[in-house]
Amino acid sequence: MKNERQICEHCKQNFEISEEELNLYKKVGIELPTLCFFCRIKLHLSFWMFGKFRKGKSDLSGESLITVLPASTRYPIYTLTEWHSDKWDAMGYGVDYDPNVPFFKQLQELQEKVPHPHQNGTKNTKCDWCDDVWNSKNCYLSRSMEECEDLFYSYRNVKVKNSIDATICFNCEKCYDCGDCHNSYKLFYSRHSRDCIESSFLYDCRNCQNCFMSWNLRNKSYCIENVQYTKEAYQEKLKSFQLNSYKSLQTFKKRFEELAQKEAVHRENFNFKAHNSNGNYLSDVKNCHNCNTINDSEDSYNCIRGMKHKSNIDANGCWYVELIGNCANCVNSYALKYSNWSSSRYSEYLDVCIECDYCFGCVGLKKKKYCILNKQYTKEEYEVLKDKIIEDMKKRGEYGKFLPYSMSAGPFNFSNGFFYFPETKKEGVLKLGGYWEDVDESHIEGMQTNELPDSIKDVPDTIITQALICPETGWRFNIAQNELSFYKANNIPPPRYHFDVRTKNQLKYLTVLQSYPYKCFYCKKDIMAYYPSEWGYEKIACEECYKQNIA
Predict the structure, then answer these.
(1) Where are the domains of the chain?
(2) Cα 459 from Cα 165, distance rounded (Å)
(3) Which of 82, 93, 131, 429 could cross-link to 78 by cystine, CB 3.0-4.6 Å?
């Protein structure tokens, strides 16, 4: 078997499918892709709304709800509790297959009739103002998390507690404004650091305590800009920094970026315990290739944003899955193909289906077997009709493709895809059948954030009753009581920008999917690293030299 070359249907660029990929496509049992790796991810993530939190009402009961789905959503919205209840039955929307109409058109017509839940997740307590949250408690305006508690304005975290503005962090507590940090306590304004305590502005540090504005440190305490101080001298110097001042803080943030550009040594990737694997942000993986932000996984290709993968290919935003292909946002699934937001087995072309087996082209079903377009069949009838549909789809060039942009949940510029592909233009999305939303909130009244006191010490308790206006987007946001208490307890000036803008700024450093050619800072050999040239990083090292000089 040889490598196969293709031309992407969307971007028209050439791409190659390796022999190893071909073997896994065959094992999983899916058709070869007609889109390149990046266009596949872009399409998958367009179905995963980052959205903008808004209040709405259930189309079933009129009960109030909070969702990231747009007000102009194409289908009815029920509260999550209602959606899982027996107050309605998705089988009531079942239709017969029409061989004269493209299958995707029939599936989309069904999708637009079947109710969808207002948010995703299970086993949560007091997480109403959240989305895609699992087994968590007391979280607010946060997304994509598991086993988190008392988390504010955060994104894609696992086992993080009592923290604000945490992005893609694991096992952290009382942290603030951190990205890709692990096993840390009271860590502020930091990136790519592990096992650190009571420190601020750390870049790629490990096992550090009471350190400030430092990089590449290992097992250190009381360091400032990588210079060792005594405990007493460190504490005195820290007092002089006026970290309670927003203006002073901006100076330190600028210095932090300068040090990242000029002084920090950057490893070619941020993989950790990655055996025979390649990509970025891989942790505890084996035989995973061309993957990004994947944990505890093995034998998979072309997957991003997930964990507990086994023998999967083109599975993005998926957790606890095995032998699935060309799927987005699926969990607890086995042998699932071309599906979205589902947890099922031996099925194809599902949208928000739960615990289904042997279903094809269904929406909103729960614990069903042998269904097509939400209509029940016998096993024998199912097999015959499924084969007929696949035959028709192949003739029309549909079969093997993921759901089209027209079936995505909302505007692309409010999806997770926009974080990974911020250069995407409105015209391009609309041309592919997708959606876009231009939001104008200039009419909203509130306090401009430049009117806030510079020091947290001068911020009155009444600020929690004041609407604030983000200077970048014009969106309104508030400071909650628990949030203000956190800021005052930790001497942090309140933010000036909307929390979604803050998350977007953090994600800029954590969503790079493409590697770029560099020469190792030490040995000068050619390497591929995940840093766009516009970041201006000057010291990038191959894995071997990084381990010798830093780790």
Answers:
(1) 150-267, 298-396, 447-507, 516-549
(2) 20
(3) 82
H-type alpha helices, 146-230: none
* 316 vs 142: CA distance, rounded Å: 20
State both tokens at 318.
């998926």
Nearest to 344 by CA among 363, 367, 312: 367
In the block, tokens 């954590």 appear at 510
What are the backbone angles phi and psi of residue 548, rounded to the nearest 5°? -70, -35
* Cβ pair 347, 358 in contact under 8 A: yes
Token pair in block for residue 487: 């800021």
Say if CB 21 and CB 301 are below 8 A apart.
yes
pLDDT digits (tens, 9 = 90+) for 197-224: 999 999 999 999 999 999 999 999 999 9
What's at 349, amino acid-wise?
Y
Quote the tokens at residue 412. 């692309």
What's the rounded Cα separation, in Å, for the pair 1 and 21?
11
In this structure, are residues 344 and 327 in contact, taking their beta carbons and an 8 Å threshold?
no
- The three-class DSSP label of residue 297 is strand
Please tell me the distance from the alpha carbon of residue 168 to that of residue 420, in angstroms, as a whole number.
Answer: 14
DSSP 8-state secondary structure symbol assigned to residue 161? E
For residue 64, the Cα-to-chain-centroid distance in whole angstroms is 26
Strand partners of residue 376: 371
